């Protein structure tokens, strides 16, 4: 998958969300391990940018991904889906269910 993590922030807004950036992390496995060791990490994005590598440790769960060659977005600790890529989606998330 070649997708970057994005967080829905409003009617038309997309952002990276809140995250910490680590440069020079050599592999996706090391990025995954860094996320696993932090309770505030809900997802990680690993990117190969030219000759550099970057690991983003996301404090907000990304709600969608955007196609970006060389970028990989993964969820953390989702039962049966841990380490699985987020699905690409540009659609508005559904509204919350009505209160009883």
TrEMBL record:
Residues 16-62 form the Apple domain. Pfam families: PAN_1. SUPFAM superfamilies: Hairpin loop containing domain-like. This is Apple domain-containing protein. It comes from Coccolithus braarudii. The lineage of its organism: Eukaryota, Haptista, Haptophyta, Prymnesiophyceae, Coccolithales.
